[in-house]
């Protein structure tokens, strides 16, 4: 698995977007992140993750770069006014 982590802003209680199409991996990641007190929204495909990124505020996004429907970098590529606020960690 390869993940891209996109840091959108910082804060006390971080709200994270997780884009992962493998159910077992997603369940494990969501459980671990919630144990660490992160607020996590999980999406199983790139289109849903992109829609959520555009309509919600997230502190960071953890995206499986090997998702088949849309690659993570295409679905989360910075664009528009928000582009300058996104930093990518791979």
Give structural notes.
The chain is α/β, with parallel strands linked by helices and 90 residues long. The chain has one domain: Response regulator (Rossmann fold), CATH 3.40.50.2300. It is built from 3 helices and 5 strands. It has a 5-stranded mixed sheet, sandwiched between helices. Strand 2, helix 1 and strand 3 form a beta-alpha-beta unit. The longest helix has 13 residues. The protein is globular and about 35 Å long.
**Distance from first to last alpha carbon:** 12 Å
Using only C-alpha atoms, the radius of gyration works out to 12 Å
Sequence stretches where pLDDT stays below 50 over 5 or more residues: none
- Given the helix and strand composition, which structural class is it? alpha/beta
Biggest sheet character: 5 strands, mixed
The CATH topology corresponds to: Rossmann fold
Q: State the shape.
A: globular
CATH C-level label: Alpha Beta
Summarize the amount of helix as a percent range: 25-40%
| Approximate strand percentage | 25-35%
Mean pLDDT: 76
- SSE run: EEHEHEHE
Write out the CATH superfamily name.
Response regulator
Read across the widest sheet, the strand sequence of neighbours is: 3-2-4-1-5
């Amino acid at each position: 698995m390869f993940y891209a982590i996109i840091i959108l802003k910082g804060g006390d209680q971080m709200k994270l977007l997780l884009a992962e199409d493998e159910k077992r991996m997603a369940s494990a990641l969501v459980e671990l992140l919630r144990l660490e007190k992160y607020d996590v929204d999980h999406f199983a495909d790139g289109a849903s993750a992109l829609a959520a990124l555009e309509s919600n505020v997230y502190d960071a996004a953890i995206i499986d770069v090997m998702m088949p429907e849309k690659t993570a970098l295409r679905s989360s590529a910075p664009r528009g006014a928000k582009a300058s606020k996104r930093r990518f960690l791979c």
